[in-house]
Design brief:
alpha/beta; four-stranded antiparallel sheet; disordered N terminus
Length: 528
């Protein structure tokens, strides 16, 4: 069958989309071109061989006055590489998949230009009139085309490249926004769709270390140990790390994951108040020796895992003082040196790795909805004030800390107030810190995503308006938090995880929920 016949056969195949047929035709043309090229090359070789044999036979015949022999100059057929034309939107083979994800999140049907459509109808509408759904924007001097449905980007392409899925992470990366999340149960495959940075996660922050290590090797020779760390060396490296522990193996796996998916890597807590209670061996040391051990652990972690570009200097320190398992948390922190301890820890880490970013993370700050302000004897207000008091003291002492942020542990039954969020973010900037990546979740269950004991009764707080589903309210809060942060000019945002539970933007089948497309819409809106 010749090429024309093959094309006709492909065009007549029943039940296949036009994009698939066109892709097959292009591939068939390319294969036909390569076959014809190989035939021309083979034909030329046969001609040359025939001429050489003819010359050999002529040289063996009786001598006569030969006629002049003219060997024709052979011209090799040029190699032709088919140049594919820029892919038309109508021919994008994965367009139905992208549309199906979008429509599924909104319940199986969406209204576009006052017309209700299912995924197949919407796909056909886009293919029949792609210009109606296409917008062009400039990002850092480059032109991008976007397929837009109800303000949400579904697909995108740069100049003459092929259409690809428009994901939150792709657009964020092009805008220079760092987005952080974790690998949790079920979320591994979709982390690259929402994040540019992976958050270190292994449970107990100290589980990578060998609990049987003799800490006196560090505490009795600290000045020498410290200088070795600053020079980039890890004393007792073969003894300090428990390379067979779950925590250590988890970190190794996550680093491999970041390399495979081109992600940055954010370290977890360098100092965590849980240190005092979960590890009696450390807690039994005198405060000055405890301080040296914490410094050594933090510096050795940064040196061991060079992929860490950002790290939490401390995590939930004030929350632990007010809500922690022991009333001795604040006392132990004071014994270490209070804010001077944090300044010293930050200074050492910057000496060990000058280009690392250090941030302070606190819980239950902008989570503070108006409905909660008077609960529990004003403990939320106390925590809020202590957080900014700590930031002010660290700035006054010139601590080399780059950013500060709060974990956004939100709940649809205590929705946050936008003005309160914006005021809090502005206060972080006014204190002299950049807005660091949050760890945003928005719970939709009967219990708060953090407080599982249900001692904040839902019925005493907020009732969803009629016609508003929990998923819709969740999407509204996610979108508002991102919009408020971007309006403050932040270059960092973060999600608690991808699909670890109902408080995330992907469901447990790893399919995007309404919340994902609503934050995608907000991100697209911020492309200037």
């Amino acid at each position: 069958m010749n090429l024309a016949g093959l094309v006709r056969k492909l065009q007549q195949l029943p039940g296949q989309p036009a994009g698939w047929k066109n892709l097959c035709i292009l591939r068939s043309c390319a294969a036909y071109s390569r076959t014809m090229q190989r035939w021309h090359e083979m034909k030329n070789k046969i001609i040359i061989c025939f001429l050489l044999v003819s010359m050999l036979v002529a040289s063996c015949t009786p001598a006569t006055t030969p006629a002049p022999t003219v060997i024709p100059t052979m011209t090799t057929a040029p190699t032709i590489t088919p140049t594919l034309a820029p892919q038309n939107l109508a021919d994008a083979p994965d367009l139905p998949i992208w549309i199906e994800e979008y429509v599924h999140a909104y319940g199986g049907k969406v209204t576009v230009n006052d017309v209700e459509m299912d995924s197949e109808q919407l796909t056909n509408a886009i293919r029949q009139n792609p210009e109606k759904f296409t917008q062009t924007k400039q990002i850092k001097g480059l032109e991008y085309s976007f397929v837009i449905v109800n303000g949400t980007p579904i697909s995108m392409k740069e100049s003459s490249f092929s259409w690809e899925k428009a994901t939150f992470a792709k657009i964020a990366r092009k805008l220079g926004l760092s987005v952080t999340t974790r690998i949790n149960a079920g979320s591994e495959l979709i982390v690259p769709e929402i994040a540019t940075t992976l958050q270190m996660e292994y449970g107990d922050p100290y589980s990578i270390y060998n609990e049987n290590f003799d800490w006196s090797k560090v505490t009795t020779n600290w000045d020498t140990i410290k200088q070795e760390l600053i020079r980039g060396n890890i004393p007792f490296q073969d003894e300090i790390f428990d390379i067979n522990s779950f925590g250590y193996k988890a970190v190794e796996y996550q680093i491999d994951y970041t390399k495979e998916h081109d992600l940055d890597y954010k370290g977890d807590c360098l100092f965590y108040p849980l240190f005092f209670f979960k590890h009696p061996v450390y807690a039994s040391l005198p405060p000055e020796d405890q301080k040296k051990v914490v410094f050594f652990m933090a510096a050795s972690k940064i040196l061991k895992f060079q992929e860490i570009s950002t790290a939490n200097l401390s995590c939930e320190l004030i929350a632990w003082e007010l809500w922690g398992d022991s009333e001795k948390t604040e006392q132990k922190f004071q014994e270490l040196g209070s804010t001077d301890f944090l300044v010293g820890l930050a200074t050492l880490i910057k000496e060990v790795k000058p280009d690392i970013k250090l941030v302070i993370i606190e819980d239950l700050i902008i989570y503070n909805s108006p409905l909660y302000r008077n609960l529990f004897d004003d403990i939320y207000l106390e925590q809020y004030n202590q957080f900014f008091g700590l930031l002010g003291e660290l700035k006054e002492k010139h601590a080399p800390i780059d950013g500060a942020m709060t974990e956004n542990n939100m709940w649809i039954y205590s929705p946050p107030e936008r003005q309160f969020i914006e005021t809090t973010l502005q206060k972080i900037k006014d204190t002299g810190f950049e807005i660091a990546a949050s760890e945003t979740v928005v719970g939709i269950d009967d219990n708060h995503p953090v407080f599982s004991d249900n001692y904040i009764p839902r019925e005493e707080l907020y009732i969803l308006p009629s016609g508003i589903s929990p998923d819709q309210k969740q999407a509204e809060i996610f979108a508002m938090l991102l919009d408020a942060a971007l309006n403050q000019g932040t270059t960092n945002f973060g999600f608690g995880s991808a699909s670890d539970g109902t408080a995330d933007m992907f469901d447990q089948n790893q399919e995007p929920k309404v919340a994902y497309f609503e934050v995608l819409k907000v991100l697209y809106k911020h492309i200037q």
